[in-house]
Specification:
The protein has 13 helices and ten strands. The protein is of the alpha+beta class. The chain is globular and about 80 Å long.
């Protein structure tokens, strides 16, 4: 599953992705500053100039969000947790990690640093605004500094609300985790709090729009509430999935009856006799008895349909040395994390160069469903 957004950059092994919702957020911040706040405090500018200042404020607030999430990731990595990706959202971000904090103390430190950075940025911006005001330098910079300062302080305080997916929810879970010594129970309680607060925001946003006709404020509130509701439920479900799969080895769920293809097979036949028939997107490739790589639907897409009858699997396959592989003794929960972060549907299970089986995300989710139906998840 690819992250919903566009890639910004990569630092080390952590990929930073901007969620598509930021397009809406960027416009809302720019609009609020250009049409509401700035014309009230600076009356001698034109509408395009107000909009330019609004865009600058939105861009600086985005950088504040980025620093907020980079702080989270830095502390997580320092605690031995590898962060594979971060999706930037309006109130922070969603981090995808290959492992979870091992204690409430670790989670507390990781969660607290984000709001602390936002609060520091807010205080700094308001301090800069105060200096300009004290020296009677009423410039666009002072308006931007004030708006940015207020936004960062509000971001910090909002993130301290004790419900998922906010940092305050993680801080509360850290306390409950240490108190109860039960991370599942702590996660369930905090998810319920987050879900309840999300419903409150949605209802409040609708009433705000209906009673005050303030469309922008109502839209902001409903937008955040909807995302919180989705994320609070997903946080608990994600934890339950990981805990159910923890301790299960890849060899216990891998498919040993392997459907493989020959490296000289025409691409046309690969599509018609394998992809269409079996509805898989990845197949192991063999040269006689030697496992030499994988071929995928993405590989087929790299060539024109007119060339399917002339090209062979060897022309579009990925050599084994570049194929992400699993070992039979790997933990299934870690395997799933690798598959999700790499957007991989099926992975080969290899030991000493021999292909032992195939594991797919469908296999893992079916296993989880069976355990859930039996009441042992």
């Amino acid at each position: 599953m690819k992250l919903s957004g566009f890639r910004l950059f990569r630092i080390g092994r952590t990929e930073f992705v901007v969620d598509y919702s930021w397009i809406v957020v960027f416009f809302l911040i720019s609009y609020t500053m250009a049409e509401n706040y700035l014309p009230q405090v600076h009356k001698n500018y034109t509408s395009p100039q107000y909009w330019m200042m609004g865009v600058v404020t939105a861009a600086l607030f985005f950088l504040s969000i980025l620093l907020h999430e980079m702080a989270h990731s830095f502390v997580a990595i320092k605690n031995g947790i590898r962060i594979t990706s971060v999706r930037l959202l309006i109130f922070g971000g969603l981090r995808q990690a290959e492992s979870e904090p091992q204690s409430g103390k670790q989670e507390f430190l990781i969660a607290l640093v984000g709001p602390a950075i936002s609060m520091m940025l807010g205080i700094f911006s308001l301090g800069f605004f105060s200096v300009l005001e004290f020296s009677h330098r009423i410039t666009p910079a002072s308006g931007i500094a004030y708006g940015l300062g207020v936004a960062n302080i509000m971001l910090s305080l909002f993130n301290l609300i004790p419900g998922f997916p906010l940092d305050g929810g993680q801080i509360l879970r850290a306390f409950l985790w240490d108190h109860w010594n039960d991370v599942t129970r702590a996660t369930r309680v905090v998810s319920q709090i987050g879900n309840g607060f999300a419903v409150f925001l949605i209802i409040f946003g609708i009433l705000q729009f209906l009673l005050t006709q303030n469309m922008v404020a109502g839209l902001w509130t409903v937008f955040i509430g909807l995302f919180m509701k989705q994320s609070s439920v997903g946080s608990y479900q994600g934890l339950m999935l990981k805990r159910t799969l923890s301790g299960v080895l890849v060899r216990q769920i891998m498919t040993e009856r392997i459907i493989s293809v020959d490296w000289l097979l025409p691409v046309q036949e690969l599509v018609e006799s394998y992809i269409y028939k079996h509805q898989f997107t990845h197949f192991p490739v063999f040269n006689r008895d030697e496992f030499i790589g994988m071929v995928s639907l993405d590989g087929v897409k790299t060539i024109s349909k007119d060339l399917w009858g002339f090209k062979q699997v060897r022309d579009i396959m990925t050599l084994l040395e570049f194929v992400p592989c699993l070992k039979p003794t790997d933990d299934v929960s870690e395997a799933l994390s690798r598959m999700v972060s790499g957007d991989i549907g099926r992975m080969p299970v290899v030991e000493d160069g021999l292909l032992l089986g195939i594991v797919s995300r469908r296999d893992i989710m079916n296993f989880f469903k069976i355990k859930s139906d039996l009441g042992v998840a």
